[in-house]
Design a protein that fits this description.
Blueprint: E1 3-6, H1 28-43, H2 57-66, H3 83-94, E2 98-103, H4 113-122, E3 127-131, E4 138-145, E5 151-156, H5 167-172, E6 176-180, E7 190-195, H6 200-203
Antiparallel strand pairs: 1-4, 2-7, 3-4, 3-7, 4-5, 5-6
């Protein structure tokens, strides 16, 4: 069976925006988190009135400092964030819990296809994915299992810089692409953040 599932409802992809203080193209973890925050805002009631806006990088850093995950010097720094920091921010700002899916170096992403398929079927959200050897954060917006049981993930790369003229441009430049799981870095472990909030379409 040819099986393809992807996220539901819209979000504002934070792939072309960053502050001048941090530099263009920097902060993929922040921008993937911002994209997830946008999806959460669009699909669930924010925890507070102020959380109706997608948090900027200083707000994300300040949140991590306030919950004692990071030291004071982290605020205003160029230090990266990963999947675990994203989970802390989502929980603090929106009171939305996240499931952590850890894929060890010795493990296969394909072995977790059912978990990812169930997530998109039941929740329809945007997943954050990051690793160690493959340190670049990325959004996962869908899963496809071919008739030959080949597994592909729909990857949203937050490194795009500039203005998007057409959505086709994102595909031709491969900032949004279906990537076979064997093409991920097999020497890297991966942590995935799955927000446990149902899309409005699925919750209706």
């Amino acid at each position: 069976m040819d099986d393809k599932l992807s996220m539901r409802d819209h979000y504002d992809a934070k792939i072309s925006r960053t502050t001048r203080a941090f530099g263009l193209g920097w902060g993929c973890g922040y921008r993937t988190l911002q994209s997830i925050c946008s999806w959460i805002i669009a699909n669930g009631p924010p925890k507070t009135a102020s959380s109706g806006e997608v948090p900027n990088i200083p707000t994300i850093q300040q949140t991590l400092v306030e919950i004692k995950d990071k030291p004071e010097r982290f605020f205003g720094s160029r230090e990266w964030i990963g999947t675990l920091e994203a989970i802390y921010v989502i929980d603090t700002l929106y009171d939305v819990s996240c499931k952590v899916l850890h894929i060890a170096r010795s493990d296969s992403i394909a072995k977790h296809a059912d978990t990812l398929r169930d997530y998109f079927e039941q929740y329809g959200g945007l997943i954050m994915m990051g690793g160690d050897m493959d340190a670049a954060s990325k959004g996962i917006a869908g899963i496809h299992v071919s008739v030959d049981q080949d597994v592909y993930l729909l990857v949203v790369d937050p490194h795009f810089v500039g203005r998007i003229k057409t959505k086709e441009e994102l595909y031709t430049k491969e900032y949004v692409k279906w990537q076979k799981v064997e093409d991920f870095v097999d020497s890297s472990f991966y942590n995935l953040c799955l927000p446990m909030l149902k899309s409005r379409e699925l919750a209706a």
